[in-house]
Amino acid sequence: MTEPLMEVQHLYKAFGRVITAEDINLRFHRGVITSIIGPNGAGKSTFINMMTGSIPPDSGRIMFEGKDITSLPIHKRVRLGVCRSFQVVDVFPELTVFENVEIPILAAQRRAWKMFGLVTNERSVHEEVMEILTKVGLDANADLLANALSHGDQRLLEVAIALAARPKLLFLDEPTAGMNPIERKRILQGIRELSQEKKTTFVIVEHDMDIVFALSERIIVLHHGEVISDGTSEQTRTNDRVREVYLGEEVDL
Ligand SMILES: Nc1ncnc2c1ncn2[C@@H]1O[C@H](COP(=O)(O)OP(=O)(O)O)[C@@H](O)[C@H]1O
Ligand SMILES: [Mg+2]
């Protein structure tokens, strides 16, 4: 088996008496679309926060491409290729759609320029922005101000912004929240295509079970900070503990 992109060992986190990570051990491999599901308060967002550096674990280790990143700050993880989008919309409302994606690309190039003396190529920046916008289906809206977009389109823009940093591993926290069915379908398609290119590996926290089962090659179920299931759609559907946890919820497994 090849080296995992990310590996989590004995991760533990509690907020007071609430345990949000109970000895989590997981490996994420390149190109595998993984969903993390679980009831509200299971610890899904906290897990993403720990992976991407906004919350430190109480104990345990996070490895990325064989390197211990447990204590690295957010920006250093981004530089290595570990990125995220948030559960709430986070775009620059007064800038255009194009500019929102251009900024992180230019920032990445400036770093490359500093390190290797590369010259910025404006045409390639334009092309790269448009390529990313096309992937998420926002190319026709490039010149609109971000705040003129529908809520769902703003969420697509967020994904585009996250992609602009050229992540190797991208965590999406409820990317379809507030989206209509057309926008959901679009983001689903976009993630699938991007995943096939294998440059970015996706780990997605998602409520919509239709999307989870349609998209995921692997589903991890968290409950009170504990991984209670880890497998294919079929294995998840037939897992007794998962059925127990979701029993009584409006979820069709
Ligand atoms: N910064 C924090 N301070 C205190 N408690 C928190 C904090 N963040 C999350 N929690 C608690 O940790 C638990 C897991 O939260 P969260 O990771 O947001 O769950 P999920 O995303 O699965 O709904 C919840 O009980 C939540 O109230
Ligand atoms: Mg959450």
Structural description of this entry:
There is one protein chain. With 253 residues, the chain is an alpha/beta fold. The chain has one domain: Rossmann fold, CATH 3.40.50. Helix content is 40%, strand content 23%. The chain is built from nine helices and ten strands. The strands form two sheets. The chain has a six-stranded mixed β-sheet, with helices on both faces. The protein has a four-stranded antiparallel β-sheet with strand order 2-1-4-5, with helices on one face. β7 (169-173), α6 (181-197) and β8 (201-205) form a beta-alpha-beta unit. α3 runs parallel beside α5. The protein is globular. The model has no long low-confidence stretch (mean pLDDT 89). Bound molecules: adenosine-5'-diphosphate and magnesium ion. Adenosine-5'-diphosphate binds at residues 15, 18, 20, 38, 40-46. The site of magnesium ion has 3 residues, from α1.
